[in-house]
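QA checklist item 7 of 12: single-chain prediction sanity check.
[x] sequence parsed
[x] length recorded as 390
[x] structure emitted
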Amino acid sequence: MKYRTVSWYDDFQCIGGSCEDSCCENWEIDLDEASLKHYMKQRGSFGKRLRDNTRVKDRQFILNGTRCPFLNEENLCDIYIELGEECLCETCTNFPRHIEEFEDLKEVSLTMSCPEVSRIMLEKKQQMTFCCREGADSEYGLKHMKPVHSLAFWKRKHTNKLDKPLFEVLFSVREYFFGILQDREKPVKYRAAEVLLSAYELQELIDAGQYEQLRQRFVRNALPVKYSNRTAEKKTWMKQLLNMFEGLENIKEDWKELLQGGMEILSDEDNCQSYESACGEFEDYYREKEYEFEHILVYYIFNYFLGASYDHDALTKVKFAVVSYLVILELDTALWLKQEKSFTYENQVRIAHAYSKEVEHSYNNFESLQLVMSAHPLLDMEHIMVGLLS
């Protein structure tokens, strides 16, 4: 089996009790069958504790409030301490890893829902690169892990079958997208717009089954300098977009606070000039660190784009990446204003991490967003382009 990972994959190590947002809080912990059986066979006082804190029928631990019952006062795992690392369940072993499988290839990424991953990714100034080599799950810190390629299940009957000819084309297209997104001669928003326009063309060809035309059709799209005089429209759209996110399941309180901060700068419906000035000023303020937004876009394209090889919905994957960038940028701008026009690297880590935790690690939120991106008129090409370029 071949494995493709981001080049800094091995830089990650769990920081355990030092983490500011433990992955052992705020989530249900699903147990794989093998781990559940192993836990239920344990003897002595710890075996009793395992049985007392497990809903066997649901294959879940019984949370202590919002915390895993085996997360001790030092924010360390008692299962790890008592039974050893090899006895952690699949969920706990694999997090914060995300995997997509394409026959003899596995693409393994680290998700920004872990603050330490966000920290490592966002601090790097160089372009994000990827490496591929032969290997085994154990070399990448994995237990058996099901790939996530069930997006857009509503669009057509989902057969969970790889369309190999489409995969081969999409792999090349993704490299093309990476090239656009990492072209630092242009502002990030223009790069994102070019990829979005290309994805729209791409989807038309996929829907028509014209795979043979996909490779040669792509050229750099000419964009207008600006969607002029549409700031009011952008502001209204951003408010509707954040309202949409407010309607999702709330995973952590910090996310709710960040969303409310974003809504504050959108609340004055008449004062579009101050909103436009704030957006422009933050863009200038943060220009030297635009590589952080570049990384965010590349991250979401790497994680999800090739999933279209299963469901044929490439455009939704690209919309997801672009909208993720826009929401994070909007929350960045709001926090910068709240902090009297100051914004730090740790602020960016906080927002990118909170966003990822909200949308990537709640099944309901993730699937709801994919459905909205696929079908809702609020997230059609025109609205997103206004959000990018106004």
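[x] summary fact logged: Confidence is low (pLDDT under 50) at residues 147-156.
[ ] second reviewer sign-off
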